[in-house]
Sequence to fold (91 residues):
Amino acid sequence: MCLAVPAQLVEKHGQCGVVDLHGNRLPINTVMTPDALPGDWLLIHAGFSIEQLDPQQATETWSLIHDLRDADVQSAQLEPPSRPAADGSKQ
Fold:
């Protein structure tokens, strides 16, 4: 599964940039978003900015990611872990 996440561009030098991802600074390549400027929101995948986003899109995307995380945590809490039986089969 591949996931691209929104991050805000804080520095740009040619095709190299640095984004802020919830307080973490990550180097990226901006070759696919050449018009991006510091302050812009970008969709980041595998170290590349692949699309410019407006701030509302970035907020909505992070909200969705948080909702998915919360649903996964709740699901994990409801399901008891499966343990192998003494003979190696699953119970």
Summary: The chain has a mean pLDDT of 87. Residues 5-78 form a domain with the SH3 type barrels. fold (CATH 2.30.30.140). The CA atoms of residues 85 and 91 lie 6 Å apart. The chain is about 25% helix and 35% strand.
